[in-house]
Design a protein that fits this description.
22% helix; globular; 240 residues; alpha/beta; six-stranded mixed beta sheet
Length: 240
């Protein structure tokens, strides 16, 4: 639980999918009983719905940080079951979305402000979300002591460097960082901590960051061939 700017209790939960190492975030305003999920995972839809039901909430939005390559979003299934809206970053390749959020635009859930910060580079369309002015959901732009790869889906290492150093790292250092994934069991950091200790950015200028990212030579995510086209349909899986 955390407190928002009006000193009223609001709800924030970090949920995890072990197969894809993905964090999904549940945010809710108990006064209006409205909720949103950030980056839901298809295989965890029933878990998320059960929790939302137990807490007496109504799912209003599913919000994506980007078009994922490592898991299929649960948005379409949740939209079908709850009537929620599916929201993606501006210019995301998802014609099925109900709404697109551009850089600086604020989505309001009850009295909780959620401001989009365009952070492309991992993919060509990607948003981080500043929630309640005290925490940022960084998606795949910034991990705890790492960052997302930039070698597919029109990713660009130089663009990611600019997004992190010129946008995320200019936020106040006490802002909490909640990433889209973690592979080592880490759950929470801060802007100041990542500026000091993130080895992808600490001590690297733009050119050395690009050289490092271009030399990673990582294998493709296991689900990339099915996840990307499904996520461009908001998570709708088409079977032959």
């Amino acid at each position: 639980m955390a407190r928002h700017s009006h000193n009223e209790i609001w709800l924030f939960r970090q949920l995890f999918d072990q197969q894809s190492n993905t964090y999904t975030y549940l945010i809710a305003d108990p006064e209006t009983k409205t909720a949103l999920l950030v980056d839901p995972v298809l295989e965890q839809v029933e878990r998320d719905l059960k929790l939302i039901h137990e807490l007496g909430l109504k799912l209003q939005f599913c919000l994506e940080t980007h078009i994922h390559a490592d898991h299929i979003t649960g948005t379409e299934a949740l939209r079908a079951k709850t009537g929620c809206q599916g929201i993606v970053p501006e210019h995301a390749h998802a014609a099925c979305a109900d709404r697109y959020l551009q850089d600086g635009e604020t989505l309001t859930l009850g009295t909780i402000p959620i401001q989009a910060i365009a952070t492309p580079g991992h993919t060509d369309s990607h948003n981080a979300y500043l929630v309640n002015g005290d925490r940022v959901l960084t998606g795949d732009a910034l991990f705890i002591r790492g960052c997302g790869r930039t070698d597919f889906q029109s990713g660009d290492a130089g663009t990611l460097y600019d997004s992190v150093t010129q946008k995320l790292f200019t936020l106040p250092e006490e802002i909490l960082v909640y990433p889209g994934h973690d592979y080592r069991g880490l759950t929470l950091s801060s802007i100041g901590e990542e500026k000091q200790w993130n080895p992808r950015f600490k001590g690297r200028d733009r050119n050395t960051f690009i050289e490092f990212m271009n030399a990673l030579d990582l294998p493709d995510p296991q689900k990339i061939m099915e996840a990307v086209p499904a996520n461009e349909r908001c998570g709708q899986v088409i079977t032959a």
